[in-house]
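To the wet lab folks,

You asked to see what we're planning to order before we commit. Fair enough. Below is the target structure as tokens, and below that is the sequence we designed to fit it. If anything looks off to you, flag it before the synthesis order goes out.
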């Protein structure tokens, strides 16, 4: 996969969007610093030096965006779990990396990675940009310290960001060439932090409504819950945030 390395940009997602026409069918851009990093639901994404901030462009892909998003987040999850495996056990914090719907990665109860997707349609093509942010060696800002974590803290050592990036890209390429929808769904389901049957609260930001219920599953691009009132509801990631969970 062609890769582009920038010292600084506003957002790697925006960079790919701006250069869409001249870029190859599949490629990736990474920046050391993003000055306007974007998170889900129009939030700001803090992107200081030392983190892994990158986006992958898929021009007219054979797969649909939610499949690409699951591929990218599982590729990141696998690379993080490999880092954990190969680190010296005595110095490593105990825990495991898991996905939190839709595509966040958590270590125990703290977020280490997030994923932001943008679809771009032209009269002749549909394109998908998947941006991934991983807290690696970057210091976390005060308000994030309780809810987020970086890889350096988990492994008690400075991490080679470039090597981690290439490991993730290799995982993405392998998952694309060996693609199976059944395996993707099973892998995604098996690596969830919030298991089926868990009690959750969902905030629907479109209608500003809260729903509480138990997770039925995560089919396709949805979260399905069974509410306390006996309703079966399906939510898309663009409309809701999964607020809290408990066993
Ligand atoms: C989230 O969890 O809210 C999604 C965060 C996505 C951050 C990444 S960093 C690389 C890419 N560029 C951006 O501006 N955002 C994504």
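Sequence we intend to order:
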């Amino acid at each position: 996969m062609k890769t582009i390395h920038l010292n600084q940009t506003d957002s790697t997602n925006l960079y790919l969007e701006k250069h869409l026409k001249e870029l190859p069918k599949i490629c990736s851009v990474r920046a050391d610093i993003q000055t306007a990093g974007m998170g889900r639901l129009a939030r700001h994404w803090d992107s200081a030096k030392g983190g892994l901030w990158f986006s992958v462009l898929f021009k007219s892909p054979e797969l649909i965006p939610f499949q690409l998003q699951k591929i990218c987040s599982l590729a990141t999850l696998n690379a993080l779990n490999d880092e954990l495996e190969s680190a010296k056990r005595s110095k490593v914090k105990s825990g495991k990396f898991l996905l939190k719907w839709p595509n966040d990665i958590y270590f125990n109860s703290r977020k280490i990675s997030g994923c932001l997707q943008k679809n771009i349609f032209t009269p002749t093509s549909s394109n998908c940009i998947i941006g991934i942010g991983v807290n690696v060696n970057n210091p976390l800002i005060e308000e994030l310290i309780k809810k987020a974590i970086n890889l350096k803290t988990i492994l008690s050592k400075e991490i080679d960001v470039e090597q981690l990036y290439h490991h993730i890209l290799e995982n993405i390429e392998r998952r694309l060439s060996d693609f199976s929808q059944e395996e993707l769904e099973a892998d995604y389901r098996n690596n969830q932090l919030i298991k089926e049957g868990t009690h959750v609260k969902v905030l629907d930001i479109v209608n500003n409504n809260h729903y509480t219920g138990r997770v039925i599953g995560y089919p396709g691009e949805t979260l399905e819950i069974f509410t306390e009132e006996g309703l079966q509801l399906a939510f898309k990631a663009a409309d809701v945030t999964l607020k809290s969970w408990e066993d």
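Structural context that might help your review: The mean pLDDT is 93. Residues 11-13, 34, 37-40, 43, 45, 47, 53-55, 104, 114-116, 131-133 surround biotin (CB under 6 Å).

Thanks,
Computational group
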